Amino acid sequence: MNSVSLVLLAAALANAAPATTDKQQTFADVSKIGTQEDIFPYLAGSAPHFSYPLSYGVSKEVPDQCVLQQVQLFARHGERYPTNNTGASLTTLYKKLNNYSSKFSGALEFLDDDYEFFLPDPSNFEELTTWNNILDPINPYVGEWDAQKHGREFFQQYGELLKNKTSFPIFTSNSKRVHDTAKFFGDALGDKFNISYQIIDEDPSMGANSLTTLNSCATYNKTAKADVYSKFTTKYLSDIANRLNTENKGLNLSKSEANSLFAWCAYEINVKGYSNMCDVFTDEELTYYAYNDDMTSYYYHGPGNPLGITVGGVNFNASVELLKQHKELDNKVWLSFTHDTNVVNILAAIGIFDPGHPMPAEYIAIKDHIYHKSWMVPQGARVYTQLYQCSNQTYVRYVVNDAVIPIEKCSSGPGLSCELSKFVDYAESRLNGTDYVSSCKTNTTSNQTSLTFYWDYQQKHYDAPLGLF
Ligand SMILES: *[C@@H]1O[C@H](CO)[C@@H](O)[C@H](O)[C@H]1NC(C)=O
Ligand SMILES: *[C@@H]1O[C@H](CO)[C@@H](O)[C@H](O)[C@H]1NC(C)=O
Ligand SMILES: *[C@@H]1O[C@H](CO)[C@@H](O)[C@H](O)[C@H]1NC(C)=O
Ligand SMILES: *[C@@H]1O[C@H](CO)[C@@H](O)[C@H](O)[C@H]1NC(C)=O
Ligand SMILES: *[C@@H]1O[C@H](CO)[C@@H](O)[C@H](O)[C@H]1NC(C)=O
Ligand SMILES: *[C@@H]1O[C@H](CO)[C@@H](O)[C@H](O)[C@H]1NC(C)=O
Ligand SMILES: *[C@@H]1O[C@H](CO)[C@@H](O)[C@H](O)[C@H]1NC(C)=O
Ligand SMILES: *[C@@H]1O[C@H](CO)[C@@H](O)[C@H](O)[C@H]1NC(C)=O
Ligand SMILES: *[C@@H]1O[C@H](CO)[C@@H](O)[C@H](O)[C@H]1NC(C)=O
Ligand SMILES: *[C@@H]1O[C@H](CO)[C@@H](O)[C@H](O)[C@H]1NC(C)=O
Ligand SMILES: *[C@@H]1O[C@H](CO)[C@@H](O)[C@H](O)[C@H]1NC(C)=O
């Protein structure tokens, strides 16, 4: 939208003010909306969705000479409010800033300027952002709309696989925002399909039969590699705190509060369309923040965690089974919605972003930096597995947030794909040595030792109650 039409829109909205004044007393500054997209890749996957910033030059469309046979999706929920914990710490920080007795100077001056805090209502925490709960209706980054748009894009590219179908399943965890995303995605396909939503419980009692196999892994230790990742510098945080404390005498902002300002910036964009708080940071500080997030994710839930690949391997293995059974299975479209951490586990198993050696914490990896967490799992992340046939051969490849990401040593097929039997060997080598049930002591919480829901949903009908987690 150009700026002239935004101004007209603002004027029109001003006339319609009664509908919105209970939410926001002062209107968002429309001239700022859309100007901060360059920094989304630096905001730890908390800012709105964006496409993968690099490509190998290959289109995500199936190559002309090939015919699509099956598609799978692992998706993250859309743009959301902060979690309870982050929401509470941002609210505490806001109260501290609001309590500051002098006028602000420097980067925080905007707080004096009729600023309204973007988290007035804790009941929104953990929720997807929707037209009903956002602060300003001209915000273009609403989770609801992102999910609908994704549904339409999916249908445009893969709808041919649903041609003869009147019904098909969509699998989702029972987190409310994950389910809502799946539902908005499905609703956007129109009413010619009877979609059967399979709501899979996140509870550890589900064992291996879940989209959140992390939760059922009794031995998982997110901080197992703390001795490695905690070596990363925190100087960028002291720099921010010192700068703001110098500009504003007596503010006494701590390093951890400086760290919270990044989340403030990201979530305020989700809710309002932009955030003045983002202007607090220098480009370098954003780079340090982003690398710290990449590197800690690698050790928390990625290939750097002793059980990252094992936990994601359950879902990767099920995905490989679906590919192998593409001829027999009547359903050709396997859509699954879950959280970023679970998609990170799955990507760890798949290996397309595995650098193959530990990520350094002593410095920012420059030459060898394939693991960008926010590029992999921004809000609304979408990891597609495509299976297509070209003459007499079948091929597999991944499309992550619109970019084809080839498997390094298996990309000689059309569109940088990997021939299916070679892909199966590749997958076996990734999963070799992993044993979810014994490594995770899953038997302490569950007797479900394998993932069955893709195969038994019609008999079982999964219908777990939704919750805010
Ligand atoms: C606000 O300032 C008053 C007076 O300085 C202080 O007693 C109170 O604890 C402060 N509240 C917060 C939330 O910082
Ligand atoms: C749809 O049905 C037609 C005619 O029966 C068949 O040729 C085609 O392969 C089917 N398409 C899919 C995606 O199942
Ligand atoms: C939709 O599917 C469900 C379960 O698969 C079935 O019970 C229901 O009758 C179907 N509804 C329509 C209108 O086809
Ligand atoms: C996780 O690993 C860290 C580092 O080895 C260790 O200090 C911590 O006690 C472990 N936590 C659990 C619950 O085992
Ligand atoms: C600044 O905050 C620290 C704790 O965050 C506190 O110990 C210290 O007394 C505070 N200093 C001032 C001047 O308020
Ligand atoms: C992968 O799935 C197959 C079929 O369900 C199962 O036999 C095998 O044990 C699984 N392997 C892993 C590593 O999960
Ligand atoms: C597949 O086609 C190629 C040429 O297009 C041929 O050389 C090859 O023998 C065929 N393979 C099979 C298994 O039919
Ligand atoms: C699995 O690993 C073992 C031991 O490291 C090795 O001997 C075997 O060839 C591997 N199998 C596959 C399929 O990669
Ligand atoms: C789980 O399995 C382990 C070894 O396979 C066994 O030692 C343990 O007793 C089992 N625990 C339960 C609760 O079944
Ligand atoms: C498996 O565990 C569930 C509860 O976690 C229990 O209801 C069920 O009876 C168990 N099944 C078997 C075969 O032990
Ligand atoms: C977040 O807070 C809501 C409302 O208090 C509660 O229902 C939910 O369980 C909480 N979720 C988490 C993960 O703490």
Automatic annotation (TrEMBL):
<feature type="disulfide bond">
    <location>
        <begin position="265"/>
        <end position="278"/>
    </location>
</feature>
<protein>
    <recommendedName>
        <fullName>acid phosphatase</fullName>
        <ecNumber>3.1.3.2</ecNumber>
    </recommendedName>
</protein>
<feature type="active site" description="Nucleophile">
    <location>
        <position position="77"/>
    </location>
</feature>
<dbReference type="Pfam" id="PF00328">
    <property type="entry name" value="His_Phos_2"/>
</dbReference>
<keyword id="KW-1015">Disulfide bond</keyword>
<dbReference type="InterPro" id="IPR016274">
    <property type="entry name" value="Histidine_acid_Pase_euk"/>
</dbReference>
<dbReference type="InterPro" id="IPR033379">
    <property type="entry name" value="Acid_Pase_AS"/>
</dbReference>
<keyword id="KW-0378">Hydrolase</keyword>
<feature type="signal peptide">
    <location>
        <begin position="1"/>
        <end position="16"/>
    </location>
</feature>
<feature type="active site" description="Proton donor">
    <location>
        <position position="340"/>
    </location>
</feature>
<feature type="disulfide bond">
    <location>
        <begin position="66"/>
        <end position="390"/>
    </location>
</feature>
<feature type="disulfide bond">
    <location>
        <begin position="410"/>
        <end position="418"/>
    </location>
</feature>
<keyword id="KW-0732">Signal</keyword>
<dbReference type="GO" id="GO:0009277">
    <property type="term" value="C:fungal-type cell wall"/>
</dbReference>
<keyword id="KW-0325">Glycoprotein</keyword>
<dbReference type="InterPro" id="IPR029033">
    <property type="entry name" value="His_PPase_superfam"/>
</dbReference>
<dbReference type="InterPro" id="IPR000560">
    <property type="entry name" value="His_Pase_clade-2"/>
</dbReference>
<dbReference type="GO" id="GO:0003993">
    <property type="term" value="F:acid phosphatase activity"/>
</dbReference>
<comment type="similarity">
    <text>Belongs to the histidine acid phosphatase family.</text>
</comment>
